[in-house]
Amino acid sequence: MLKIVLLGAPGSGKGTQSEKLVAEFGVPQISTGDLLRSAVANQTELGKKAKAAMDAGELVSDDIVVGMIRERLNEPDAEKGFILDGFPRSLAQAEALDELLAKLDRPLQGVIHIKVDNEEIVQRLMARGRADDNEETIRNRLKVFQEQTQPLVEYYDNKDMLSAVAGVGDIDDIYARIKAALPA
Ligand code: B4P
């Protein structure tokens, strides 16, 4: 039963590698980015609140995102495990996750940090061209990552839960590195 977090800057390949893990391990990918984009597309109240932050490359409020994750982790398919993709993204979210998983008695096994340098990220995301993939927003997302998400590297390292993987090069090679880094 795989219960992991994929941590990495925007465009580091979290979504790409999650799909491969889902196909091999049969546990759901839980992507806060996907959940938020779906809420925006469906014009739900939550989506309306999230849209401006997403368009600007800022984080959506912890309350909204943690509430979404609480609901998703309570769905039956998450009982067999999960790959958290893009969550947590702040210390407050990491602490909320610890609390949620303790209540569910489903402790996290480990955190994989996919490392890619900023210039490669800007190139990849400009090539993808999603609504929030323009240069100004990408640079802001990288700044937000540095300020709010990077502290999680130390947070999980202190808990001895962190493995770093080089995220540049062939997608299958990166996947092999991730598999080698998975918690036993
Ligand atoms: P996300 O959807 O998480 O977007 P992302 O960080 O860009 O990651 P994504 O998974 O899409 O990129 P990937 O690396 O797979 O978040 C979007 C926004 O939602 C945030 O800015 C924020 O506003 C909000 N949000 C989400 N979660 C939140 C939270 N927890 N709290 C608050 N707000 C939150 O892929 C990128 C591209 O690289 C793809 O085109 C892919 O094909 C390519 N690629 C992948 N691997 C490659 C490789 N090895 N070589 C070359 N290209 C590669």
Please tell me about this protein's structure.
This protein is of the alpha/beta class and 184 residues long. It has a single domain, classed as Rossmann fold. 57% of the residues lie in helices and 13% in strands. It has nine helices and five strands. It has a five-stranded parallel sheet with strand order 2-3-1-4-5, with helices on both faces. Helix 4 runs parallel beside helix 5. The longest helix is centred in the last third of the chain and has 15 residues. It is globular and about 40 Å long. The protein starts with a strand and ends with a helix. The relative contact order is 0.20. The mean pLDDT is 97. BIS(adenosine)-5'-tetraphosphate binds next to helix 1, helix 2, helix 3, helix 6 and helix 9.
Secondary structure elements and pairings:
Layout: E1 3-8, H1 14-25, E2 29-31, H2 32-41, H3 45-56, H4 62-73, E3 82-85, H5 91-104, E4 110-115, H6 118-128, H7 135-149, H8 151-158, E5 162-166, H9 171-181
Parallel strand pairs: 1-3, 1-4, 2-3, 4-5
Bound molecules: BIS(adenosine)-5'-tetraphosphate (B4P).
